[in-house]
Structures are given as C-alpha cells and as structure tokens.
Amino acid sequence: MSKTYDSLHMGRSSIDLYSNDIGAPFAEIDSFAAYIGGSPTNISVGGKRLGLNTALLTAVGADPVGDFILHFLDNEGVETRFIPRKPEHRTAAAVLGIEPPDKFPLVFYRDNCADINLNIDDVLAAPLTDCRVFQFAGTNLSREPSRSATMFAAEQARLAGAKVVFDVDFRPDQWHDVRAFGVVARGVLRLVDVVIGTEDEINAAMLSDIAQMSLTHSQVSDTKVAGDTRGAIEFMLGMGPEAVVEKIGPEGARIHLWDGEIIEAPGFPVAVTNILGAGDAFGGGFIYGLVKGWGWYKAARLGNACGAIVVTEHGCANFMPTMPEVEAFVAPYGGLD
C-alpha cells in the first residue's frame, strides 16, 4: 500500500513540566524541566525516531507554548503542517511529580485547550486517506468537537485502507462521568482494528464492574478498576477489532486475537525512574512493527524495548530511542525475536 505517511496520530499535545527533584513530595518541588507531551504527540515522535514518516493532527493555541511544541516537532521531523493554531484556545499543559517507584502525581491543565477543539474541518485538511496507520487516543473522545471529529477521522482512514489503532488512554479526570467513557469507547470499536490498553483501561472501556459503581474522579484515579479482564477483552474483540494489545507493565505485553489466540511478548527488566511515557514509547515501537508488517510478537517486543528504555529516563518524547539504540539495548537479551 503506497502512502505518503506511515502513520498519522490524532489527539492531545501539551507542554509537560516534569519535576527535577526526583523523590521529593510534590509540595517540595523546587524546579521543573520542560518537555512536550500528549499521548499521540509522544507516539508520533517515537515512531519518527525509529524511522517512520509520521504526521500529527493536534491543535495548539496562538501562544508561545504552541511555538515550543511546533519547534520541537519540526526539529524531530514530524509533519506539523496539519496542526491548526486556534487563537481562541490555549495550548494544554501538564505538571508531574516523580517519586519512584510508584508515585507520579500528575495534574492536567486543559480548560479551553486547543486540541480538544479539533473539528471535522481540521480532519478534512489532514491526510486521512494517505497514511498506512491512523492512531488516536481515548481522551479525544471526552468532549466535542474532538469526539465526532475523531470518529469521522477513524471512519475515513479505515475506508481508505489504513489500519486504525485506538490507544485507550483513560484519563478519569477528563470525563464528566467515568461510565460515559465506557459508553463512548464501546461506540468507536466498530471503526478500530487494534486496541492498546492496560488492564485498568480495558476494564474501564468495557464498563467491567464500573457501571455499578459510583466513584469520584479521584477515587477512580487512585483505585484499580476491577473487573473480569479476560471477559472484557473477549467482549471487546466481539465488537470488531482484530487484536487487543494488553500492556502488562514490567512483564511486557499480551496480544489477544479475534480467533482466541493469545501471544505473550515478555518485557525487559530495568530500574524505573519515571513510568509516565512508557505506554507511549510502547505505542511508537508497536506501530513501527505494524507498519513494517512484523508479526504481533516482534512488534510488541519492540514496543516493550522502547518502553523499557524510556522508563529509565526523566521524560517521554524527548527520550524516545532510535532504532540503533534499541538494537544495542536488546542485544544482551538475544534481540527482539
């Protein structure tokens, strides 16, 4: 399939401020490092560094933060000409504390943000029919006009022959009701070929147990979303996707196929500095393998390697590995196969 772009990524972008005081409680942080962020934005950079020709469909404000994001992406070689600037909205931001191994307080600043105001006209100006893979994030679906624009984009990309990848990206505080997330996520699955998510995200998307729960955003953020994950995955596969890729942290990834086959792709042991961004690094690697026609196992192994490398670093997009760096990393483990 001859297409200009290997992958097109749609969704949020932001300036991410990461604590420089690793281990310090959030209230005691003295300084932050500035990076770019937003799940599809990170994945576009990850794919580009590995060698894909990637394009990004997000939106930024007519502000210096938007300049910061576009400057970084242009330097990376990610195609930015489909990114509209929306003067009536602001570029998003996120602030992160780093307290390894398991405390990473994260605050989003997305009121009146530009990327959630992507609309169908923005989609029509993007190369939906000229990409091999179209990837979008669940947060896109949290509000209009981004929700309908994303669904339209997935529909158009799939009609043109692209593989559609749905990164569940469940952020409870971006939804007015966590149950609404499940309703909308289920509604988009008929347009999707591959789903990528953690156990919690899969259960939330399929409303496993959560439909009967009355939880605040903070309670959901601090509590594992209970449920029958295997049953949720089977239900999800029954709604259209050919594969559900379950990210299982240090253990790697588990690929569930529509015919019932399950493929285990083990991870790589590393010392964790910051887990935020591991999933996006995985996405960049996995989509590389998908574009290149690799099997599910090898694509997931590349994703695992990228994730393992990034969790040893301070940030996310700025630390995505190149293919030579991945090859050097996996060599002691016998490679990706």
In short:
This protein has 337 residues and is an alpha/beta fold. It has helices at residues 39-50, 64-76, 120-124, 146-159, 178-188, 199-205, 217-222, 229-237, 278-291, 296-310, 323-330; strands spanning 5-10, 14-19, 32-37, 54-57, 92-96, 106-109, 131-137, 163-167, 194-198, 243-247, 252-257, 262-266. The longest helix has 15 residues, at 296-310.
Q: Could you explain the architecture of this structure?
A:
34% of the residues lie in helices and 19% in strands. Helix 1 packs across helix 9 (278-291) and helix 9 runs antiparallel to helix 10. The protein has helices spanning 39-50, 64-76, 120-124, 146-159, 178-188, 199-205, 217-222, 229-237, 278-291, 296-310, 323-330, and strands spanning 5-10, 14-19, 32-37, 54-57, 92-96, 106-109, 131-137, 163-167, 194-198, 243-247, 252-257, 262-266. The protein is α/β, with parallel strands linked by helices. The strands form two sheets. It has an eight-stranded mixed β-sheet, sandwiched between helices. It has a four-stranded mixed β-sheet with strand order 3-2-5-6. Residues 210-226 have low confidence and may be disordered. The longest helix has 15 residues, at 296-310. 51% of the residues are buried. The protein is globular. It has eleven helices and twelve strands. The chain has one domain (5-12, 39-90, 111-333): UDP-N-acetylmuramoyl-L-alanine:D-glutamate ligase (3-Layer(aba) Sandwich).
